[in-house]
Amino acid sequence: MAYDSDNIFAKILRGEIPCEKLYEDDDTFVFMDIMPRADGHCLVIPKTPCRNMLDASPEQLAACLKTVQIVSHACLTAFDAEGITLQQFNEPAGGQEVYHLHFHILPRHEGVKLRPPGQMADFAVLKTHADKIRAALAG
Hints:
Layout: H1 8-13, E1 21-24, E2 28-32, E3 42-46, H2 58-78, E4 83-87, E5 103-108, H3 123-138
Antiparallel strand pairs: 1-2, 2-3, 3-5, 4-5
Helix pairs in contact: 2-3
């Protein structure tokens, strides 16, 4: 299938939809997930179009994973987390819902289950969590 330039993440990249931005470099963009399954749940996307890892270039994948590592370290610090769950879904059968390559970073604590999917965040709490990650990134 072809890339849809009107997907929600493409609109976020163009500034048409607001987001709680955490990090940006030449190749990637990171923002808070508005339906977080854990405190600090954020998304890493490439700035260039691709549906998912199945059609991404090696350069897009490498750039995203470099950023995933940077932001994961910041999430560990910001939330005093004991681990990170990294999720990435491909095509409908694989659970993908937004067709722009993205990696979910979920800070984790032993014994704390993920929240159910589809629950909208309190935006004041989301901003507080974003501030914590941005502070950790600033180091």
